[in-house]
Structure formats: structure tokens, C-alpha cells
Amino acid sequence: MKNKFYKIKIKRKLFILIFIIFLSSFVSAVELGVSPGRIEFFGECENVTIFATGKIIAEDKWSKINSNNLDDYNLNSRNAGVEIKYEKNFIVNGNKKIPVCIEGEGEHFGVLLFRQEGSMAGVGSWLYVDINNKNEIRKEIFMLVPVTFELVLLLFLLRKL
User: Fold this and answer.
1) What is the CATH classification number for the domain harbouring 81?
2) Number of domains comprising the chain
């Protein structure tokens, strides 16, 4: 009787061990990260850093509204009125900086998504584009520089009198 109980106990442990080994062959982990989580573009290029190992696939999506719901991002860059340039497929072993350049006019809302090939898991970076604002700010600064210079020169000359 004792021997029969011992055999059942060994069979149970053996079954659990085989089951664990069987399950571990289906489990896989994906290490994937992106920085920064939000990028603001005012007519220049910015860098995005990807933290991963393996082949990465990138894509951009756009929305007419500023939203944190990915379902709202259903436009491509052409339909959104934006031209975006970045590497779409690349290999990372640790981390890699990816330059992202955007051209266009106006205010746009986008997301840049990254996923490992063969995986459904992914990460993204929100994109905010407002190209007109920076151009207007630059114009205002350049308009103020001559006026400021003239005022400083006038004050300097008045001191000498």
C-alpha cells in the first residue's frame, strides 16, 4: 500500500513538471520601450529613443482631434496634411535613436507606434505638431530685435548728453 501511494505521488510530481515545461514553451516576453512619451514639433526634427532587442516595425497614425484614445487615430499622414520621415523598419540591440522629421502647416495630432516583428505588443509616442506657432513667434522676435537695439542705442546716446 505504501509503495502504491509513493508511485502516485511521483506520477503527480512528474505530471506537474511536464505541464510546467510545456507551458513555458508558449510563454515569451517582449522588452520594448520608447522615450519621450510625447513630442512637440514646431517645424524641426526630434529624436525618439527605442529600447528593445530585435526587429522593430514603426508606423504613424493621425487624428483630427487631440485624444488619448488610439481608436481616434485613423488617418494616414497624407490625409492629415503632414509629411513625416522616419525609419519604418530597423533592428535594435539595446537602444537606438530614431530621428523623426515633420513638415506641413497647422496643428496636427498623431501617434508614432513601435512593435517588435511577430508580436502584438507595442509602445508609442504622442505627436503634437504646430508649425505655424513657431514661425509666428520667430517673426515677432525678429521684429522686436531692431526695436530693442534702437531703444538701447537711444538710451546710450541720451546718457552721453
Assistant:
1) 2.60.40.2310
2) 1
